[in-house]
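Work Package 4 report. The design task specified in the project plan requires that, given a folded chain encoded as structure tokens, an amino acid be chosen for each position. We show below one input record used in the internal validation round.
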């Protein structure tokens, strides 16, 4: 399970917020997609902002490799089940949590 690449970006919304403000969720995801596109198209113009906001040490800032970002996407259902089973085997989760109740499909 740990021998694969996994995105380190997770976007979480409270279920009540999604129900009450679906347009805000859509606007946020649209803005996130635009940011991903802009950064990926020309990462160097965002280097100063990245260094400042993420507190990259000055000594390595110029050579720091800027990541390529993925647009938001729903977590794959087959991977969700695998992770849930792993968490249950470690007693991190004691009950079933359905994919449908957890993941907002786009």
């Amino acid at each position: 399970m740990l021998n694969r690449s996994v995105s380190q970006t997770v976007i979480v919304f409270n279920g009540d917020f999604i129900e009450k403000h679906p347009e805000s969720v859509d606007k946020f995801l649209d803005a996130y997609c635009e940011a991903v596109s802009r950064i990926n198209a020309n990462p160097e113009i965002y280097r100063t902002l990245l260094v400042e906001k993420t507190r990259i040490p000055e000594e390595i800032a110029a050579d720091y490799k800027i990541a390529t970002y993925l647009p938001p996407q729903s977590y794959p259902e087959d991977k969700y089940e695998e992770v849930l089973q792993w968490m249950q085997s470690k007693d991190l989760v004691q009950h079933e949590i359905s994919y449908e109740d957890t993941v907002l499909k786009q």
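The helical segments are 15-20, 22-41, 47-54, 58-61, 77-89, 99-102. Validation will be extended to a larger panel in the next phase.
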